[in-house]
């Protein structure tokens, strides 16, 4: 047994160290509890983010619901309690890493245009129960996920409701029974305060509406005297404000924390570099006398360098004149991009969308000439590490992609296009830009995103048949972190034409939970794919298939005889 609560327990599964089974006791006389449980399962099923708990399957017998999930070592509440007992603060690096991951997960939940687990669009979600006990962690704290979505709601609706854990509830919830994404941000602030001090703020507790209204009045400011870190205090001052509209968004908090973590790491590197530079300086001082003896020779060399640079500047000036004289369609920016003059390029950025008579932009010319600094000036890599090549791949700009490949191939996003650690090839495949895929496959074929997904998987998930044909040789037979293949994605998303292409190469493969492509087609109700696979595939029943049945919340109404008892 890994843990026990009021409504059940979490147990390990023998033979599957990465998995656990959550047992939830059924209370037939508690309709509200059953409603919340079903709501949680439906919500988690459509979410797909590394910071959100993933439930793989769920089944039911007469007395319990059994949910198969990844296994986590502990939760944030236990971490805080352990440090409180020893009177030792949570290490700052670990605390900021946890907060950044939680903020990133909230940003995903709050995003009204996010991609659901099945590839469809999904509305924003208000979590409504952010607290340390619902924040699960690996043993080293390097991976954090949010759990328990029974109280979450659609962010589009702000109807009066009172839900959550009092210590982490915002003033507007006590006073007006309102919850929104800004209420989640208040709860995030309480968690941040608790990580810094091992205690919740003095104003974090249950409030009657009239008491809250009398306490949280215009001009109220939080008592943050216990916060020693200036950065934490500044962030909490932004969060603990009474007007929900004035609180930062989860994405803003995530970017702020990410920037702070990066700057802290950068400072360590700079200190190390300075120490190294000091050692080098000492070594140079030891040979100073020898260097002085050679000073006359060095002075002569310096004069020669200056003269050579003057000649080069003159050549560049004449080169620009010749370019303009030869082709009047070249703008000054194109000339600067071609010769690599970044200062001149900065003065003419307003021309960056212009094309010469050959259809080339300044960006293409800079890429062709290998001037990476100018490329970054014209189409900079953004905070999600999305490059000019990726943007060109997204819009299907074949010629720009062709020129940028030598400079920017094999780079990864952090979170561009909702693809964590994705590539330009994955983006092009998802969009169905066949000619771009043809260019990129030899350079980026075989690469995987954070979840082990390939460009082929993104192509089949979106039914991009021509792209599938280009990628199958390079990426067929690969599996993602859950063991799923491109064929399983095709079957689950109802693309029979892709199934026909892939079945010979991947037909007898199974994911880590014992499911094959036929199972995925059956679970999603795709009869045409099922028929194709029924005739082509061989079947066997791996051990894990005895543990679980389809993850379909209609199990609440299924007869007991249709379900398989869990084995531990």
From TrEMBL:
Lineage: Eukaryota, Metamonada, Diplomonadida, Hexamitidae, Giardiinae
Keyword Nucleotide-binding: yes
GO molecular function: ATP binding; protein kinase activity
UniProt keyword annotation of Cytoplasm present: no
Domain Protein kinase: 1-261
UniProt source species: Giardia intestinalis (strain P15)
UniProt keyword annotations, A-Z: ANK repeat, ATP-binding, Coiled coil, Kinase, Nucleotide-binding, Transferase
Protein name: Kinase, NEK
Residues where ATP binds: 22
Spans of repeat ANK: 358-378, 451-483, 482-509
Pfam families in alphabetical order: Ank_2 (PF12796), Pkinase (PF00069)
Coiled-coil regions listed in the entry: 264-305
């Amino acid at each position: 047994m890994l843990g026990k609560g009021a409504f059940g327990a979490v147990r390990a599964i023998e033979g599957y160290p990465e998995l656990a089974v959550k047992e939830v006791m059924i209370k037939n006389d508690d309709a509200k509890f059953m409603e919340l449980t079903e709501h949680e399962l439906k919500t988690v099923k459509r979410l797909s983010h590394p910071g959100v708990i993933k439930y793989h399957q769920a089944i039911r017998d007469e007395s319990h619901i059994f949910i198969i999930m990844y296994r986590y070592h502990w939760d944030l509440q236990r971490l805080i309690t352990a440090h409180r007992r020893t009177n030792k603060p949570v290490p700052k690096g670990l605390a900021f890493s946890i907060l950044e991951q939680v903020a990133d997960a909230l940003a995903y939940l709050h995003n009204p245009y996010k991609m659901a687990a099945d590839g469809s669009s999904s509305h924003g979600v208000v979590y409504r129960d952010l607290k340390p006990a619902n924040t699960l962690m690996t043993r080293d704290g390097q991976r954090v996920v949010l759990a328990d979505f029974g109280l979450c709601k659609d962010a589009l609706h702000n109807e009066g409701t009172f839900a959550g854990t009092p210590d982490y509830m915002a003033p507007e919830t006590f006073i007006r029974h309102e919850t929104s994404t800004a209420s989640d941000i208040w709860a995030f602030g309480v968690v941040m305060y608790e990580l810094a001090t091992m205690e919740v703020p003095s104003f974090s507790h249950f409030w009657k509406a009239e008491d809250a209204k009398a306490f949280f009045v215009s001009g109220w400011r939080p008592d943050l005297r216990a916060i020693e870190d200036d950065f934490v205090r500044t962030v909490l001052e932004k969060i603990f404000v009474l007007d929900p509209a004035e609180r930062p968004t989860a994405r803003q908090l995530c970017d702020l924390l990410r920037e702070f973590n990066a700057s802290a790491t950068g400072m360590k590197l700079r200190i190390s570099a300075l120490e190294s530079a000091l050692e080098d300086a000492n070594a140079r001082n030891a040979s100073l006398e020898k260097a002085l003896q050679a000073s006359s020779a060095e002075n002569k060399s310096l004069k020669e360098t200056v003269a050579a640079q003057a000649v080069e500047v003159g050549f560049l000036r004449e080169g620009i004149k010749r370019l303009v004289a030869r082709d009047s369609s070249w703008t000054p920016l194109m000339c600067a991009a071609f010769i690599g003059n970044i200062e001149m390029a900065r003065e003419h950025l307003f021309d960056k969308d212009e094309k010469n008579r050959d259809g080339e932009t300044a960006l293409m010319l800079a890429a062709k000439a290998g001037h990476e600094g100018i490329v970054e000036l014209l189409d900079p890599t953004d905070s999600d590490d999305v490059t000019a090549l990726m943007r060109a791949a997204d819009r299907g700009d074949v010629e720009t992609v062709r020129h940028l490949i030598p400079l920017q191939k094999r780079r990864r996003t952090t979170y561009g296009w909702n693809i964590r650690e994705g590539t330009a090839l994955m983006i092009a495949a998802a969009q169905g830009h066949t000619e771009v895929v043809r260019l990129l496959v030899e350079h980026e074929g075989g690469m995987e995103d954070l979840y082990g997904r390939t460009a082929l998987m993104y192509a089949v998930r979106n039914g991009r048949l021509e792209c599938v044909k280009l990628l199958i040789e390079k990426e067929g037979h690969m599996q993602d972190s859950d063991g799923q293949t491109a064929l399983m994605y095709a079957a689950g998303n109802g693309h029979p034409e892709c199934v026909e292409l892939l079945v010979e190469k991947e037909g007898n493969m199974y994911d880590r939970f014992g499911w094959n492509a036929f199972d995925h087609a059956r679970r999603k109700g795709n009869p045409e794919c099922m028929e194709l696979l029924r005739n082509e595939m061989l079947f066997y029943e791996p051990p894990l298939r005895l543990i679980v049945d389809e993850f379909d919340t209609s199990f609440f109404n299924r007869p007991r005889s249709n379900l398989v008892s869990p084995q531990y």
